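Regression test attached.
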Amino acid sequence: MSAPIQLQPGETFILNVGPQHPATHGVLRVKMEMDGEYIVKAETVLGYVHRMHEKMGENRTYAQYLPNLSRLDYLGALGYTHGHVLVIERAAGIEVPERAEYIRAITVELNRLASHLFWFGCYVMDLGGFSPLMYALEDREYILDMLEAVTGARLTYCYYRFGGLYNDVDDDFIEAAKRFIPRMRKSLKKYAALVTGNIIFQKRLEGIGPISAEMCRKYGATGAVARGSGINFDVRKNEPYSVYPEFDFDIPVYHECDSMARFKVRMDEMEQSLRIIEQGLAKLPGGPIMAEKKPKNIKLPVGDFYQAVETARGSFGIRIVSDGDKNAYRLKLRSPTYSNMHLFDEACEGMMIMDALAFMGSLDLVIPEIDR
Amino acid sequence: MGGYFSDIFNGSKSLLIGMGITFREFFKPVVTVQYPYQTIKMSDRFRGHIELIADEEGKPKCVACGMCERACPSGCISLNSISVETEVDGKVKKKKVLSKYDLDFTKCSLCGQCVENCNFGAIEFSKEYNLASSNKEDFHFNLLKRLEERNV
């Protein structure tokens, strides 16, 4: 055994959290300059799971790029593929049947629920409570079973096509979704009593990781992070796409700016997603699920196209610069957690390391999506 | 001082409520499937690796047009054909026959482009999911051979 190193007063040391650390939920490295238990300076280091998804978009056709989108954020994959098909459909002028758009909205919201449930379980586990993770995973399993029966995959879906869907939903899916909604409402009450009402949990999170609205704007933070800081921004309401204008739902906004506010935003969002699914199932029109007029090989006109969608983590944007060929000249992905994560460097200065990890969990980071 | 005692009271109450929930969950039925011993039925649309479909004679329906090969984003399909001369009503006709159909499943991302682009309905998804192996070669499938084995 070596002798312990004695630090002089005022002397700092470097602590590496990651790249393989259970609290980062992925391969993210955080280089922290520590003064005892307090963080003097933190730096997030990226690039450990970089897969060149943007470059891949330039050397394969638009249809061949479809499976890539679900590999960005493997917990809420449908939201990302939705963005891709929307931008292509708008650029190529493909009319999507209404039934297809409704099914897209329903499945995206189910996927958002699954993503939030997994985040909820893991976040509480990060803070030391194991049981809620098991309860959340049980509920999530019902969603994954439903989506598997429709899409054929459990996590990395490739379900949407330009102009419609891969295949139609059946009565079993609609029945299962209708059965699931009351069950999930009951579970949400259970989570509220078990976790949100818990005194230890409240004292642990209140006032931890304050992010002002000013800082959110500076870094371009979106999603639950911005809504927990009092910014009422949701792409589904502010720049409506698909059939979202036809649904009646609220955007939860909290003004406390701390980790507890972000936690509450996501818990409230689950209820709103349930409302959207309920209305979608009630309104679901009949008809075809695939556009009739659809070119076999899609070529976009020359131009610059952008589409933003609200995924489980925030505003995801996809920008395609086309030179008229069958693949993109340049493809840019604006991922929400990339912006949300960069808050961390500034916000955690002067924080204790245990609080910093509790704060990091509230940002809901998915590393493959940051690195792309 | 009043806040101090009400905090203790409300805090203890919230902990008891939480304990009540976990206690009730304790007596609920077990939902875990003990996987290697129990299995569940795969859904009809489950996407495993692709498999060739045979016609009535047991030959592959595939006409070796190569649409799947071109549509695949990852380039995991490679096929070859030979031209066979057959005599139909005294006339000699040349016919393309599939001679090789290899799938490199290590690269496949199960997107379904090959099945969708096939104009002859010659490939389908299998329900195979027990594919764990420590040998890479186990994921290079010779689909023609697999089709013959299925026919026997």
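Expected vs. actual: identical. The interface with chain B takes residues 60, 63-68, 71, 131, 135, 138, 141, 145, 148-153, 156, 158, 166-167, 190, 193-195, 197-200 of chain A (CB under 8 Å).
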